Amino acid sequence: MSLTHLNSRGEAHMVDVGDKTETRREATAGGRIHMRSETLALLAEGGLPKGDVLATARIAGIQAAKKTHELIPLCHALALSKVEIGFELDEANACVEVKATCRLTGRTGVEMEALTAVSVACLTLYDMCKAVDKDMRIDSVRLLSKTGGKSGDYRRNETADDPRATAPSSLAAPSRDAATNRDMPMITGESPDGHISIAPRNEQPCIQVKFLAELRERLGISDIDIPLESLPSPTVAGLKQALQSHDTRFSLLGERRVLCAVNQVMSADDMSLTDGDEVAFFPPVTGG
Amino acid sequence: MISVQTAPFDVGTEQQVLTRKRTDIGAVVSFTGLVRDFNERPDVQALTLEHYPGMTEQALQDIVAEAEARWALQGIRLIHRVGRLEPGDPIVMVAVASAHRRHAFEACDFIMDYLKTRAPFWKKEHTVSGHYWVAERNTDIEDAKRWEAT
């Protein structure tokens, strides 16, 4: 027996409940986020402060496809039978190619769902990586193909408008690049050691925790969201305990010199915390 | 007025702004802090100043408000730079205007002592022999204590 919300690689995806009639609609959209090659390398090895980047972006894309009708005024609410989000890490061009495929059996097309999924997956990649790279650029959000429906099938002629296809370097070895992309590891499921995946935003009451200056560098992490319910008590002391049970490195927070601010006001261990509070830990100040 | 900025500043210009169209100011005391080329280690090539946006500005505001409550002041200008700075660069400026010099001298001294111990800024120094975060100094803490319980 297998879990139907996980595919063979353990990645989360929506289950295909369609394929029952002839009126099947499918659309695939693509988009790209360009970043520095160092950022891409960090993303590939799971070294980014917010943790499991691709898994989070995949869930964000799936969620966005389901909410398209809330965002685009004249879109119908659709019962999508399948949403699939894929990532290709393109080292040669220092970008991540995001693809989303949406499918349903019904009377309306799903290209807006696929485009929305790609856009939000790209935005999530930006959000997850922006701590180390603010120069990232999202572009080429486009419909790649659609099938079914009155207007007939459509397939984009990628060689005509893909800037990478006209670049001399990709002309030289396009097939090898494609092979490299497929060999890139997918990062899903458990985070690499020392990194903590964030919970999907707004799903549960959370405390936003920040680490500043030397403390951030010693911990190797700048931001994490900690579910309020994981705190043994709703105080700064409880938050420290919850962090330490996540990862022993957070025992650093027990040092006397580590200071704490709750919602940007200096606070002691007994300060109480509620949903949405911003808690920052930092070393003694050295300005002036 | 308080600014946290990456851009350099000019002390002369700032002082002119502070005293423009005023005839009630009898004294302006200003302090300017510069990046030194030696600190915990020699050969400091640059430093990077980090702050906590939001909290830093509020902390500076609180320090200025406390100075205004303690002394009779007619204007305060406080600028602190962040980002990468090199030896010789101005890093912080406090200018205090008052009717009489004593108030201006003391308030300026007070603001710098509190800024160094209470405002969220952190320095990382880049030297020939490596990078390190600057440690807090006991002398700064002792200096700030001078203003307590008085």
TrEMBL record, chain A:
Ribonucleoprotein as UniProt keyword: no
SUPFAM superfamilies xrefs: MoaD/ThiS, Molybdenum cofactor biosynthesis protein C, MoaC
Ranges of biased composition (kind: Basic and acidic residues): 152-164
GO MF annotation list: cyclic pyranopterin monophosphate synthase activity
Record's subunit section: Homohexamer; trimer of dimers.
Record-given protein name: Cyclic pyranopterin monophosphate synthase
Keywords, in A-Z order: Lyase, Molybdenum cofactor biosynthesis
Keyword set includes Transmembrane helix: no
E.C. numbers: 4.6.1.17
Pathway(s) it belongs to: Cofactor biosynthesis; molybdopterin biosynthesis
Function: Catalyzes the conversion of (8S)-3',8-cyclo-7,8-dihydroguanosine 5'-triphosphate to cyclic pyranopterin monophosphate (cPMP).
Classification via InterPro entries: Beta-grasp_dom_sf, MoaC, MoaC_bact/euk, MoaC_sf, MoCo_biosynth_MoaA/MoaC, Mopterin_CF_biosynth-C_dom, Mopterin_synth/thiamin_S_b, ThiS/MoaD-like
From TrEMBL, chain B:
Any Pfam family the entry gives: MoaE
Highest taxon in the source lineage: Bacteria
Reaction catalyzed: 2 [molybdopterin-synthase sulfur-carrier protein]-C-terminal-Gly-aminoethanethioate + cyclic pyranopterin phosphate + H2O = molybdopterin + 2 [molybdopterin-synthase sulfur-carrier protein]-C-terminal Gly-Gly + 2 H(+)
Top EC category: transferase
Annotated CDD domains: MoaE
EC number: 2.8.1.12
Gene Ontology terms for molecular function: molybdopterin synthase activity
Key words, A-Z: Molybdenum cofactor biosynthesis, Transferase
Associated pathway: Cofactor biosynthesis; molybdopterin biosynthesis
Subunit structure comment from the entry: Heterotetramer of 2 MoaD subunits and 2 MoaE subunits. Also stable as homodimer. The enzyme changes between these two forms during catalysis.
PANTHER family for the chain: MOLYBDOPTERIN SYNTHASE RELATED
Similarity annotation: Belongs to the MoaE family.
Name of the featured protein: Molybdopterin synthase catalytic subunit
